[in-house]
């Protein structure tokens, strides 16, 4: 990945988070863009989002976010000047939940609830 693409990824991530948390404060309080990956030709991009809450709440927030994708893209287009503005696909990032589950398993191994007989 080129240096330019990495800089664009970071810039778009920062701007998406800013748009979400300034324009839709109450709805987007539990949503954070954790990573952005744009294609080298800047036509497509993936936005990985972490959503706090149960699986049902996360799916509902992801549907809401996908519904606002056009408005978010328009605002990003006003803030960032690029030859092509990527069309973003929003995906749920479950790395935080997986990390927490791994920590639980390691804790259970280290301090078992029921000691072996």
Could you give a short description of this structure?
With 117 residues, the chain is α+β, with helices and mostly antiparallel strands. The chain has helices spanning 3-23, 55-67, 69-79, 95-110; strands at residues 31-38, 44-51, 87-92.
Features:
single chain, 117 residues, GMP Synthetase, Chain A, domain 3, alpha+beta, 52% helix
Describe it for me?
There is one protein chain. The chain has one domain (3-110): K homology (KH) domain (GMP Synthetase, Chain A, domain 3), CATH 3.30.300.20. 52% of the residues lie in helices and 19% in strands. The protein contains four helices and three strands; from the N terminus they run αββααβα. It has a three-stranded mixed sheet with strand order 1-2-3. The relative contact order is 0.15. The mean pLDDT is 86.
Name the strands of the widest sheet in spatial order. Answer: 1-2-3
- Main sheet: strands, sense, barrel: 3 strands, mixed
Distance between the termini: 54 Å
Domain count? 1
From the 3D structure, determine the CATH topology. Answer: GMP Synthetase, Chain A, domain 3
Order of helices and strands: HEEHHEH
Determine Rg (CA atoms, Å).
Answer: 18 Å
Portion in helices: 40-55%
Tell me the total number of β-strands. 3
Low-confidence stretches: none
Q: Kindly report the name of the CATH homologous superfamily.
A: K homology (KH) domain
Counting DSSP H or I runs of 4 or more residues, the number of helices is: 4
Which band does the percent of strand residues land in?
15-25%
Mean pLDDT: 86
* CATH hierarchy, class: Alpha Beta
CATH architecture descriptor text:
2-Layer Sandwich
Structural class: alpha+beta
Shape type: elongated
């Amino acid at each position: 990945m080129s240096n330019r693409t990495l800089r664009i990824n970071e810039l778009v991530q920062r701007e998406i988070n800013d748009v979400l948390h300034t324009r839709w404060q109450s709805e987007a309080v539990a949503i954070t863009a954790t990573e952005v990956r744009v294609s080298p030709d800047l036509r497509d991009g993936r936005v990985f989002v972490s959503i706090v809450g149960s699986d049902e709440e996360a799916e509902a927030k992801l549907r809401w976010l996908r519904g606002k994708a056009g408005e978010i893209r328009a605002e990003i287009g006003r803030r960032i000047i690029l030859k092509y503005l990527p069309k973003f696909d929003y995906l749920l990032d479950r790395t935080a939940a997986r990390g927490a589950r791994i920590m639980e398993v390691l804790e259970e191994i280290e301090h078992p609830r029921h000691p072996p007989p």
